[in-house]
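Re: export button greyed out
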Amino acid sequence: MENIREILKESIFEVFEKMFFIFLEPGGRVLVHDYETSIGFDGPQRGTLRILFSRPVARLMVRNMLGIADEKEIERHVEDCVKEAANMVCGNFLVNLDASKKFAMSIPVFSARPAQPPAVSEGVHAFDFDCEAGKMGVILEIEGKG
Amino acid sequence: MAFNLLIVDDSNSMRTVVKKIVGLTGLEVSQILEADNGRRALDVLGGNWVDVVILDINMPEMNGLELLKRMNEDAVLKNIPVVMMTTEASEAHMKTAFEMGAKGFIRKPFVPEELRKMLLGVLGFNEKGTYGEHQGDSEGVDF
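Workaround output, generated via the alternate export path:
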């Protein structure tokens, strides 16, 4: 289980640093977020990865990824940008988990004002991060042998 | 010599990033075409001259592997080099993609230099961006 957490954390850091130029640090838990993007995966193990963002973090991602400054233009790209973040984090996590195995990933789903994240229990891994623009969280629900 | 590039990815943000990166490679690009799934890519390929395709796997309607299969079944399209650009970069996915005719594989997220090297390699450019033997690292995988 510790292995899964470490692999996921590395995947999150890699994607956010390389693609969005955002450097995350462990942070305190927030129960309400502005946006959520989730993606499912199936294969030797199955589950769902959810990334929860505050609005300022999502906007910073767009600004950094696309290099745009216009506020309306940034808002137009938020959904697409955070969905791509989930796609990249999940893909990297699965490759780092076991590159020899084939997983199928779903198309990411976006929602504004998402429901509260599930309570942490067996098979649920939750991370909370701080960055220059605010807070975000990542929740992995995974079934199968870890 | 300039070339035409088709970027196939359902993420508009990702297509924008790739276009920017291509602009930074220093390579002379005549036209950058875009499609947000495999079906639309087939339409673009049917109506335009394309020298290289950068292709995502995980897309709605027609995914990247289905498009690769369709291209491989076509006498003209199967000659166009395809670089898979995806997060689904397991050995199994790569093996499947190379068997289906992909010429390269680049894993998201990537830095501009990785894409530059990949494009140089599949297009047969050298490091100066002119035709000749490619001197950079090959990102292709032998199976």
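Chain A has a mean pLDDT of 89. The button fix ships in the next patch.
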